[in-house]
Specification:
Elements: H1 2-16, H2 19-46, H3 54-74, H4 78-83, H5 85-108
Helix pairs in contact: 2-3
């Protein structure tokens, strides 16, 4: 039963997703990882005394986690989102206001 649930869930997800936007995101992630590898590997090793693949591995970890996060967020049902929309908005607004205060604190000190 659980196997059919995941199988049907993946089919419904793939059927409802905008494939052009999904492929565009994947291409941008792949290009970003490639350019991160090509441009910073020698810089990190020679000038910053870091591992040659320090920035590449960091960027790769964030790119892979963001792809999984994108898939997770896009698979959430809209009815579920409507229940928590006000809370999400308030959290985002408070976060933006906190950024302003943190920038002000950094400039003062």
């Amino acid at each position: 039963m659980l196997k059919n649930f995941f199988k049907d869930g993946i089919k419904n997800y793939w059927r409802n997703i905008d494939k052009a936007i999904f492929v565009s995101f994947l291409m941008l992630f792949i290009l970003g990882v490639f350019f991160s590898f090509a441009s910073t590997s020698t810089l990190a090793g020679e000038r910053l005394n870091k591992d040659y693949y320090f920035f590449f591995s960091k960027h790769l970890i964030f790119a892979i986690s963001s792809i999984f996060l994108m898939i997770l967020i896009s698979s959430v049902q809209i009815n579920f989102l409507k229940k928590f929309l006000i809370l999400v908005f308030i959290f985002a607004l408070i976060s933006l206001i906190l950024v302003f205060f943190f920038i002000f604190l950094v400039k003062v000190s």
